[in-house]
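Morning. Coffee machine broken again, so started the prediction first thing and wrote up yesterday's gels while waiting. Chain of 362 residues, entered below exactly as on the submission form.
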Amino acid sequence: MTTSERVAIVGTGLIGTSIAMAAVRAGDQVRGFDVVPAVLSTAAERSGLVAADSLEECVRGATLVVVCTPIPSVAETVARALETAPEAVVTDVASVKSHVVHEVSARAPSTDRFIPGHPMGGSERSGPDHASASVLDGIVWVLAPAPTVDPVSLDRLEAWVTRLGARPIRMEAERHDRLVAIVSHLPQVASTSLMGLAATEEAGEPEILLLAAGGFRDLTRLAASSPHLWGDILLANREAIDAAIERYVERLLELRALLADGRQEAVEERFAEAKAARLTLAAKPQVKAGVAVLQVPVPDRPGVLAEVTAVLGAAHVNIEDLQIVHSPEGGRGTIHLTVAADAVVSAEVALRDRWFEPRRLA
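Came back before lunch.
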């Protein structure tokens, strides 16, 4: 029998409110607190959590506390929660773990009920207005328990994460930080740097951004993220990110050298390796046959996306991933559909029967 929890959410931004929504959906009692009253009010309205007037009121009597504050205040908040809620399992959602573990250990006399966590979901947007329980559906939720953690508390937290729709995995804090530096933090650095380069070039070439097509928009999406949030993250994980940037620069310089030497075959080999790896990334674990990508030009009008998905649904073709790229000129766009490789022919036939013109990219 599933046991409901009394959940306290401290920090009701995008991820905190999304977790609250998922917990309410799962049948938990949820209280929330935020130092910004307007943010808390919006979160309560959207998620159904009960707003508390203080951190202590929020966590008192809770069986599970989730700290969703900015990184600089995580450790102090965790320590206060451990003291105020002596029966509760306490976790956090910070995207850097080693720093948090060190800071919490310095503040709390006992940390056997604290389990560092990181749900690998979110958006470049921020705030409770953009929250959704679906943010957690199917995502990996890293748990980085210390060797001294209470095993019953760990099992309980894993069961709760699963009940919310996410996939808990255990990982040592240092390893987590090293890996997310490459797959999460470095993409933010690259996106921000590329957008900054284009903005600088715009001063001398005011039409450069008019030429920005889908690839540029895809790569710079993260540049719209919160500067304050990412400043905290990058500084807290600076050593791992420094190593990741160094390795990335080495790759860029290697490709630059191949181009300078005119080594077309070697350049194409690098692209082929990256393409193969990217297609593997796009597939869910249960998609054994690999994936294929279809490019479908569409008019920019209401209902066209629903029409495309309905066509594929009727053909029993599942969409593994979907992306829309709008034309800078307006009036049209392109849908990039990722489907299982063994379903791509069915997808192409179904789309052409409805007068769409899909083109297979991979």
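The radius of gyration is 23 Å. Going to sketch it on the whiteboard this afternoon.
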